[in-house]
Specification:
- By secondary structure, the chain is α/β, with parallel strands linked by helices.
- It is 42% helix and 18% strand.
- It has eleven helices and eight strands.
- It has an eight-stranded mixed sheet with strand order 3-4-2-5-1-6-7-8, sandwiched between helices.
- Helix 5 runs parallel beside helix 6.
- The chain is globular.
- It starts with a strand and ends with a helix.
Length: 260
């Protein structure tokens, strides 16, 4: 059974999509069968691995709203071991359309339960909001990774997200865990970056990943080629950092499995 991990933070510009694409590609590079689910109407994860959102006939929207079989929507990427459940602009309307549905928070969970046994990992790229689509993603997930950028307003809004996670744990998904807090856009030359790392690590302790994601030009430019960083430049600091993160997540999960 695949582990389902959401990448969530309602704050924009913290590296959710960059993390989703590059973590999924890194897990695939380690030969874990991985599905990237694009749950953001902007469809940046879809275009970030080389698909044109305008050409997508069916994706996660149709799975949730019309109960289409996810197998009809999944696209095999050009990367071995990596598949995509894409998104397109219609997903914007899902928030409104699902309001009248019974068990509306469970639609993504129902869709993914049917396919999770085919994958080792399912990574969900959430939109920058705490709306119904993100609630669906968290309800469908085993755990959540929270990217936090190493900048002045880093902790702003984090309390709201943690509160939402608590509500989902108490009402919809008691098994949801925090996989970890991921510090992104780290620049070791800046005192502010180091202060944020220290502050977040002091406050959240073992919840923070050891891996830091640096500011890196290859991470920024690779989506314009429709590639994850590991395919664009495998030796770049960004690609190596996400590979380290994938290894850290695999090691943490193996350790938990041994303890269970």
């Amino acid at each position: 059974m695949g582990k389902i991990i959401s990448i969530a933070n309602q704050k924009g510009g913290v590296g959710k999509t960059t993390t989703s694409i590059n973590l999924a590609a890194s897990l695939a590079a380690l030969e874990y069968k991985t599905l990237l689910v694009d749950a953001d109407p902007q469809a940046n994860s879809t275009s970030g691995i080389g698909e044109d959102p305008k050409q997508i006939k069916a994706g996660i929207y149709e799975c949730m709203v019309d109960a289409i079989d996810p197998y009809e929507c999944i696209i095999k990427s050009d990367i071995d071991y990596l598949d995509l459940l894409p998104s397109h602009i219609d997903l914007v309307g899902a928030e409104v359309e699902l309001v009248s549905y019974d068990e509306r928070e469970m639609k993504m969970r129902t869709a993914l339960e049917a396919i999770r046994e085919d994958y080792d990992f399912i990574i969900i790229d959430c939109s920058p909001s705490l709306g119904l689509i993100t609630v669906n993603a968290l309800t469908a997930s085993d755990s959540v990774i929270i990217p936090v950028q190493c900048e002045y307003f880093a902790l702003e809004g984090l309390g709201k997200l943690l509160n939402t996670i608590k509500i989902i744990q108490s009402r919809l998904n008691p098994d949801l865990e925090i996989e970890g807090i991921l510090l992104t856009m780290y620049d070791m030359r800046l005192r502010l970056s180091n202060q944020v790392v220290e502050e977040v690590t002091t406050h959240f302790k073992s919840m923070v990943f050891d891996t830091l994601i640096p500011r890196n030009i290859k991470l920024s430019e690779s989506p314009s080629f429709g590639l994850p960083a590991i395919s664009h430049d495998a030796e770049s600091k960004g690609a190596i950092s996400y590979l380290n993160l994938a290894n850290e997540i695999v090691a943490n999960n193996e350790q938990l499995a041994e303890m269970a």
